[in-house]
Specification:
With about 260 residues, this protein is an alpha/beta fold. It has five helices and 16 strands.
Length: about 260
């Protein structure tokens, strides 16, 4: 069975739900994989819009690249946590000697939010991932690697006999001097790539890349499709339309993510 990637959040840093940002989307990072399981990549504000997970009561698996607020703010508001017969698995990397459960309980609790995991009705199971760890979700192989970002993020590779997907949000290509991420993500069908900045507007050391970095990455990894996302929240549709036009001139397989888009593996 081929996989499908449903785009539910494309922004970095903050949501931007205004009319000049709606073509590409105003929600922060969240992707749903239609792959025979309920697998989510990150839990930004787009998490609250996902409907596919309510079609049945299969467990939900949420893979967090890191715990910056724009990647976890959907955990505050998703109604799946209020379903008594739902099982939710959250996976994330250990940071500063804290497991993923400890990290999330620090911020999803009073006084920062009126309720937390103890009040949620779903059964929530936390999985702390150590650097470089590999595991499986119902036959799908999940491989991880430390990314290149000043605040520690995780590269993710998901694969089975049908599809290979890479996930590189909050990745700064310029920091990856030895091209280790390219080695990790060879021969993918689709890579979801950090295009936070437009070319020539990068801020060194901020942990982000551009669509031009993504094109180079796609070619060096022999990847079929490159899905650019995590746009800076200040970039309007007009700006992104022009950048997409320029990117398409350089590489027809470079795709700019838009909320509601579905990409087949």
């Amino acid at each position: 069975m081929s996989w499908k990637i449903h785009v539910y959040g494309t922004r970095g840093a903050f949501p931007h739900p205004e009319k000049d940002y709606m073509k590409y989307g105003g929600n922060t990072s969240c992707f749903y994989l239609e792959c025979g399981n309920h697998i989510l990549l990150d839990a930004g504000s787009g998490l609250s819009r996902i409907e596919e997970i309510y079609r049945d009561k299969r467990p939900v698996h949420i893979l967090l690249s890191h715990v910056h607020m724009d990647h976890i703010m959907g955990l505050y508001q998703s109604r799946i946590f209020f379903e008594k017969d739902r099982e939710i698995h959250i996976y994330g990397e250990s940071r500063n000697n804290l497991g993923i459960e400890e990290q999330l309980r620090t911020v999803i609790t009073k006084p920062y939010w009126p309720i937390g995991f103890d009040e949620f009705e779903a059964k929530t199971i936390f999985h702390t991932i150590m650097e470089g760890e590999c595991f499986q979700i119902d036959g799908i192989h999940i491989l991880t690697k430390r990314s290149f970002h000043p605040d520690e993020t995780m590269l993710i590779r998901l694969e089975d006999e049908n599809c290979r997907i890479g996930y590189t949000l909050d990745y700064e290509a310029a920091m990856d001097k030895n091209h280790l991420a390219e080695g990790f993500l060879q021969d993918c069908d689709v890579i979801i790539f950090d295009g936070n900045f437009i070319p020539d507007q990068e801020i060194p050391g901020w942990g982000h890349s551009t669509w031009r970095d993504g094109i180079r990455f796609r070619k060096n990894t022999n990847t079929k499709k490159m899905l650019i996302s995590h746009y800076a929240y200040a970039y309007t549709d007009q700006i992104l339309e022009e950048q997409e036009r320029l990117a398409k001139k350089e590489d027809e397989y470079c795709i700019f993510a838009r909320e509601g888009m579905v990409i087949e593996c």
